[in-house]
Design goal:
Ribosomal Protein S8, Chain: A, domain 1, 348 residues, 16% strand, globular, 6-stranded parallel sheet
């Protein structure tokens, strides 16, 4: 296989900078399994072009060999990204633009190979298996998140949109429900737009609250066949409800997820956390910078809980940043534009 690569734009060299900063390098990667090359390179070599443009390297593919040229650090990163893509394919995982982007982002980490393969010191691979797919970490912080989900009782996942906070938590919950570690899966969100007074909306209670819970349903259907989701919801094994419905309950033998937790009040958060029961696990997901509680001056229950509980035994605080955004790359740039140093202090 050969191609005429699209040369990535490389910034003009500043002659005042050291030669070390612009040292050129060349590397060659040989793939032992030619059958994966089509998926690895992408249709019309789109994956290779993406790596070129993001890292500022030149890639030439000849048969089962790929030659990379460019700045030495970028060449090293491109080589590791290609090895990571091969590892994904050999493990039966899909490769798409999002996977390429996440591997590029993780290539800045010194333990990239351990992240890609999930092998750290001989430990078991870091992944979550569900009925429909296998989820592997797509950012360095997701490594810590998956580890916390496997060992801690209560996990706070804090950070901007697109970091996989809720999706990974739902995948872990589905996995534990499938293997019998828990008997129930409970997903909850505050319905802040209607102040949890939903009577003016048409339909029965389920129809009233479903619009606010749609993201949780989407994650569920991505991890389980639709007929299983419907059957388990009908039997009560899976419950999706606004946080107001948690009052007065003890949630034992359950995996409980609270999404958009920044929109709870301190009283709601205390009520939710004290529902914790035997053989249960709780995940509280939210973005402290996106509070939509009506009134404007109301204190967020998420911020209050983090302040009170940080460091408490049995709890983990996982803090995602802009660099951990694993949606389309433009999402990270949008988040940075809104939350960067020039962002308005009055933004929600």
């Amino acid at each position: 296989m050969s191609r005429k690569p699209v040369r990535a734009h490389e910034p003009a060299q500043n002659h005042g900078e050291s030669r070390q900063a612009h040292r050129r390098a060349r590397a060659e990667v040989e793939f032992d399994e030619p059958t994966v090359l089509g998926a690895l390179f992408g249709q019309f070599d789109t994956n290779l072009v993406q790596i070129e443009n993001r890292l500022g390297v030149y890639i030439a593919a000849r048969g089962n060999r790929v030659q990379i040229e460019g700045p030495d650090d970028a060449v090293a990163r491109a080589r590791e990204v290609l090895k990571g893509l091969q590892q994904r394919l050999m493990s039966g995982l899909d490769v798409d633009a999002g996977a390429v982007e996440s591997l590029i982002a993780m290539s800045t980490e010194p333990t990239l190979e351990g992240i890609i393969t999930g092998e750290t010191g001989g430990a078991a691979p870091i992944m979550i298996r569900t009925r429909r797919k296998t989820i592997v970490p797509r950012s360095a912080m997701q490594i810590e998140y998956m580890r916390a989900l496997a060992r801690e009782d209560i996990i706070f996942a804090l950070g901007p949109a697109g970091t996989g906070k809720t999706y990974v938590a739902v995948a872990q919950a589905v996995s534990q429900l499938m293997n019998g570690s828990v008997q129930r899966l409970i997903l909850s969100r505050p319905a802040v737009e209607a102040g949890e007074r939903l009577g003016f909306l048409p339909g029965d209670m389920k129809e009233k609250v479903d619009p606010y819970l749609r993201p949780l349903y989407d994650a569920l259907y991505d991890c389980m066949p639709p007929e299983q989701v419907e059957r388990r919801m009908a039997s009560g094994e899976i419950e999706v409800a606004p946080i107001a419905f948690m009052r007065g309950r003890t949630l034992a033998d359950a995996f409980v997820i609270l999404d958009e937790a920044q929109n709870t009040t301190p009283a709601q958060m205390k009520m939710f956390l004290t529902r914790f029961g035997q053989n249960s696990r709780m995940v509280v997901c939210g973005d402290p910078k996106q509070v939509d509680i009506p009134g404007g001056d109301a204190q967020s229950g998420l911020a209050d809980a983090v302040r009170r509980l940080d460091g408490v035994e049995g709890m983990a605080m996982i803090r995602f940043g802009i660099a951990d955004v694993v949606r389309h790359p433009i999402v990270g740039r949008i988040v940075e534009a809104y939350e960067g140093p020039d962002a308005s202090s009055s933004s929600a």
